Amino acid sequence: MLDIARIRAETPGTEHVIHFNNAGASLMPASVCHIMQTYLADESKFGGYEMEDKYACDYDKVYQLLAQLINCKSKEIAITDSATTAWDRAFYALPFRKGDKILTSITEYASNYIAYLQMMKRIGVSIEVIPNDRNGQICVEALEKMIDENVKLISVSHIPTNGGLVNPVEAIGTIARKYNVWYLIDACQSIGQVPIDVQQIGCDMLSASGRKFLRGPRGTGFLFMSEKMLKFLEPFCLDLHSAEWKSQNEYEFRKDARMFEISECNIAAKLGLTYAVQNTLDLGIEHIWQRIQQLGELFRKKLSMIDCVLVQDLGQIKCGIVTFTVEIDGMDMVKLCKQLRERKINTSVAVRHHTLIDMTARNLNHMIRASIHYFNTEEEIDTFCRILQDLIHTSVFM
């Protein structure tokens, strides 16, 4: 259903590298780069505020487009400069009290878990980690048994940073609704590769990145904040965009999720995000997801055929993030990543302290993370595996 030749022609980076680092930052389409360059050129000639006004109708579309992508109302979307900023603005707005419990996953990302620890230190909340099931994903049955009157938040990563598993967020949402517990999802690795319907999932809050599988620019992200939460949450910081100064001793919040924004933002990046989301919608997220799963399955199969390579992905459903180790004494994953880059193949390294609980439990320190996207090809996978095999052979016989 996807015209891969056309898509690659509209992705200039595919001419120069094999890009298997989409979980870090994907290659932007030419249309995204063009609108940002056009805007910056106009801003340099005619002024920042003036061009902000001129392009307002263009970048304001991003709220409607994101709402369409995840099935929510546009007033439930806030644009931020990263997924972390979006997540923080949701988490730190929650009115925790001493004794409240946060339930999270074994594969939780470091930035999120550090925030839990800060809340534990600051207020006295407790953190409990939900066990995995036999497939390595969040065990929904165990989660339900952990629910008591002190549980205030279930906060999980939809797709962890260090592997291919897709957590069962809809089943978790059923538990959250049943017991009236706040539900926050980190979707920075899933938005743009997996279909997301917040109504079907039943989450109250969701954070996501623009630079990864959405193929937008760096410095972009967004927050979904449900109407239910908007009725009682207060952002931890305000300015003249998020609130209106009514009198000397009075201000009034905005009535939509944009109360979690601030007035100053990167307009060029916001325009780029608008075009990136439109591109995803035009291609169809279901078609994207289908191709990613096909490529991911092929990639894992071919990697498993290479001596000494061990694919480390968990989960019943797997996505486009493919992680593996090379089981040779002294093999350095960081050096291997560098050697691949020297051969114009982009990957990254999953390190223990980014998902400390999970990788400690699995006795893993470093893994190569090769994250594919729909514009990648079977030929690129073959080339990757051939070069990887050559590098391993060289290291064995040095």
UniProtKB/TrEMBL annotation:
Residues 19-384 form the Aminotransferase class V domain. The keyword Cytoplasm does not apply. Its cofactor is pyridoxal 5'-phosphate. Keywords: Pyridoxal phosphate. It comes from the Eukaryota. Belongs to the class-V pyridoxal-phosphate-dependent aminotransferase family. PANTHER family: BLR4730 PROTEIN, CYSTEINE DESULFURASE. This is Aminotransferase class V domain-containing protein.
